[in-house]
Amino acid sequence: MKTxxxxxxLLLTLLSHADVFAQPDRRNGPSQERLELLKLWRLVDELEIxxxxxxxxxxxxxxxxxxxxxxxAKHRTVGEDLERLLQKEGVxxxxxxxxxxxxxxxxxxxxxxxxxFHKQLEGLLSARQQAQFLLFEGRFRGDLRGIVRQxxxxxxxxxxxxxxxxxxxxxRRPDEMD
Length: 178
Description:
The chain is mostly helical.
């Protein structure tokens, strides 16, 4: 009962931070919002986050999620630019090096962001909760894949077939492969 009340309080806190869900990216629609809510609900439940922790943790999670999405969007754009350069004839090594440098810089920024985020968690969560948090994302994604696989099997489809849309770089047609 206490966990349910805390989870409900956390959801209300989340909804008060509506900017978490205001995503300009077309892939982040209502289903993405529901997925984020499900993820937070599970996080609260698995880590046994208290109401006091939630008040401090949710704004940090929200800011981190926005920063990660911004960096991923930039990474995707620069990666697509690099892909276009590789498609062109007569592109100088300097142009390629510039784009590669930009990608490496973004990767470095992503690493720094992750490190900074984990430092912030040290002041918000117990050591046990931090350890659970580190494992949570992979477990959550695995559970989602399992649910999707089961759903596809129920629909009569081949659950092992790749049903992924391209993320980031453009997918090549077979005639474009080396």
